[in-house]
Amino acid sequence: MKQKKDYIPVIGLEIHxxxxxxxxxxxxxxxxxxxxxxxxxxxxxCLGLPGSLPVPNRKAIKWxxxxxxxxxxxxxxxxxxxxxxxxxxxxxxxxxxSQYDQPLSVKGEVKLTSGKxxxxxxxxxxxxxxxxxxxxxxxxxxxxxxxxxxxVPLVEIVSEPDISSAEEADEFLKxxxxxxxxxxxxxxxxxxxxxxxxxxxxxxxxxEGDLPDYKVEVxxxxxxxxxxKAIEHESERQASLLNQGITPxxxxxxxxxxxxxxxxxxSKEQVDDYRYFPEPDIPPMKFSQKEIDQLKVNLPELxxxxxxxxxxxxxLTTDLARILTKTRELAEYFxxxxxxxxKNQVAHLEIAKEIVNRKINPNLITANQLVLRIKRxxxxxxxxxxxxxxxxxxxxxxxxxxxxxxxxGKTQALDRLIGEVMKLSKGKASPQTTxxxxxxxxxxxx
Length: 446
Fold this sequence. Notes:
- The protein has helices at about 60-70, 165-180, 225-245, 290-295, 305-315, 320-325, 330-345, 350-355, 365-380, 385-400, 400-405, 415-425, 430-440, and strands at about 10-20, 75, 80, 80-85, 95-100, 105-110, 115-125, 130-135, 140-145, 155-160, 195-205, 215-220, 250-255, 260-265, 275-280, 285.
- By secondary structure, it is an alpha+beta fold.
- It folds into 3 domains: about 5-295, no CATH class; about 305-380; about 385-440, Arc Repressor Mutant, subunit A (Orthogonal Bundle), CATH 1.10.10.
- A 9-stranded mixed β-sheet has the order 2-6-7-10-1-11-12-13-14.
- A hairpin with a 4-residue loop joins strand 13 (about 250-255) and strand 14 (about 260-265).
- Helix 6 packs across helix 8 (about 350-355).
- The N and C termini lie far apart (about 65 Å).
- The mean pLDDT is about 90.
């Protein structure tokens, strides 16, 4: 009997991201639906009333294209909207305006820290559905519908089935969220508010490169932690079935947060079930190369690019650079502080460490105030090179394995040697001068 460890998860992810436009995707109703009185931001268009006509939100389309570019995708010069037909209470028209064979962006990718690349099949534009609210009313269980969310601009990001573990899925999702947040004001990707929602497509293969002939979709996941748990549980469930010689049913399942298990909801639809056809009320979209090039030019520096630049320009360790670029706001704060540091002859590394180690809140202390505080603290430091050289030699002598690690290319070992010098000097050694002397000693320059 085949054991679970012999199976390889084949995982694809679907990420739905609500855009922060002022109005909805196809009408002028407010797109703000979080903690708003139910059914107050609606009109004949988003309620799907007869005779109403959709008018696309140009800004939402542009923002969807920016997301596609930021995820390494290729923008298409021709795109169109389609009707995706299915019946559900939260879909007032009986169909959703989405995109099928001509999405706005195709063939992107995200690179994990391991170097593995996860392909992105497509990034397309659609409208969100209403929201079902299950509650007790006069002692009876009822389902109510709030249509405030109906018609809100929604971007769907579909990955290739390149993900092989819960850990890879978790990292991929966090990278995508970080990239979109770097595109300021487009979306906050807040899962508590429902502006980022996740779906997992999972099956188990018997060998590397196999694509199983079934797929299970898991919906209703609203946190990265629950994605990991859903993948782990679903992998165990499917492995148990396969070990019995049973092929898992191709279906849609929901994730239950309380039990940590997935539950069957309905059989999984095929593409033909949705009866896609071009949206007759919206003309196809055509984009010139000039328009596409302009979008590329206006993209901000993205997290990986910024992290690599911080390592190179400011001589930061990978870990420091990763923390400082976690949000665009923190990265920009560090760079403002770096400018002030140069004026005041304070090392960039000291600025970085102060921000990270003390968890500095940029809203509570200005970059200039931070630098001046560090400068005052450093006024009593030992800066004499002769004294520091003696301490550095002692640190290298007492920690030979750390010195070997540095010479072998593990540059982060230098921080441990600096720490040793700090201990020997009772915290009074100048970190900047100490670093310089240690590098010279380890590289045999003195």
